[in-house]
Amino acid sequence: MNTHNSEEILKKFIQDGGYFVFIGNDGEEFKVFGSTLKTALMGMKMSLYWSKPSDINSVINQIERYRRNAHNVVVIMKLERTGDYSSLRDLRVHYSREEVPVTVLMKETGKDVITLLEEMGANGILVLPYSAINVTEKIANTIKPSGLNEIIQNCEKLLANKQYEAVLNICEIILRRKPGSTVAYMLKGDAYSGMAERKSGQEAQQDRETALIFYTLAWRGNNKYLEPLKRLANFHKAQKNIAEQLRFLLELDELSPLNVDRRKEIGTILSRDFGQEQEAKKYLTESPESTEK
C-alpha cells in the first residue's frame, strides 16, 4: 500500500466519523503520536482519545459508546514492557480484529514477542521510533487490509453468518489462482467444521473428517503458520483426542513459546492425562523466555 493510498484511507476514516483511541501510560507519547498523525494528514482535524492501560474497562465502555453511535474505532496501544499484554487480551475478549483494529507500538524486540502479539490479536505492530509515513501506512492497513488479509476477513464474516457454501466457493477461486493455498485449505476446514455443526450422525462425521483433511493440508503446506495448528489442536480437543491435541499444542509452543495460557494447558494435560509431573512442571511453573533477544 503506497503512502498516498494510506493517507486517503485515513482521511476517509476520519471524514466518516472514525475515532482513534490511544492506550498508554505516557501522556507525552500520546501528544507525539497525535502530532505525527496530524502532520501526515496535513493538519486534518480528528478525534483522539487517550487512556491508561489500568483504565481498560473505561476504554472498552468508551469504545462501546462510539460504536453505538455508528463511529468506527481504531486503537493504538503503546506497550511499556515485554510481557504486559493484559490490555490487548482484555480488548480482544470484547472485540474481534475486524470490529476494532489494534496497532501496537513497541520498542524493538524479538521475533517471539511479535509472534505472540499477532497471535493475541494485534492487527499491526509498529516498532519505535516511527515516522509519519510508518504511522499512516500501518494504521491504514489495519482499517482496510489488502490482498490476502482482506479475503480472510471477508470469509470470517461469511463464516460468522453460517454462509459456509459461499466460503467454499471463494476458496475454490483462490485455489484455482494459487494451487495449494494454505489459507484456502484452512478456510475450507472452517467451512466444513461449521457445516458439521448443522448436521448429525454420519453426515456430521463426514464433514468433520473433511475439515480435518483440509486443516492438515493447510498445516503441511506451511508448518510455520500458527492458525492451522490452532485449528488442529482445537479440532482434536473437541473430539477428545488428547494425544493429538497435545501434539499440536507442543508444535504451537515451539513456534510461539511466550503464550503462557497455552503453556498452562500443556502442563495440565501432561499432568492430568499422562502423569508426567516433572515435564508438566516445566510448563506450569517456569516462565517462558524469548528465543531471540
Polypeptide structure, described:
The protein is 63% helix and 9% strand. With 293 residues, the protein is α/β, with parallel strands linked by helices. The protein has 2 domains: 3-143, Response regulator (Rossmann fold), CATH 3.40.50; 148-285, Alpha Horseshoe (Serine Threonine Protein Phosphatase 5, Tetratricopeptide repeat). Strands 2-1-3-4-5 form a 5-stranded parallel sheet, sandwiched between helices. It is globular and about 60 Å long. The mean pLDDT is 90.
> In total, how many beta strands?
5
CATH class categorisation of the largest domain: Alpha Beta
Provide the helix percentage: 55-70%
Q: What is the level-2 CATH architecture name of the largest domain?
A: 3-Layer(aba) Sandwich
The major beta sheet can be summarized as: 5 strands, parallel
- Helices, by number, come to 14
Number of domains: 2
Backbone CA Rg: 21 Å
- Strand line-up across the major sheet: 2-1-3-4-5
Strand content: 5-15%
Briefly note the CATH topology name of the largest domain.
Rossmann fold
- Give the class from helix and strand content and strand pairing: alpha/beta
Q: How far is it from the N-terminal to the C-terminal residue, by CA?
A: 30 Å
> In terms of per-residue confidence, which ranges show pLDDT below 50 for 5 or more consecutive residues?
none
Which overall shape is indicated by the principal axes computed on the Cα atoms?
globular
CATH homologous superfamily heading of the largest domain:
Response regulator
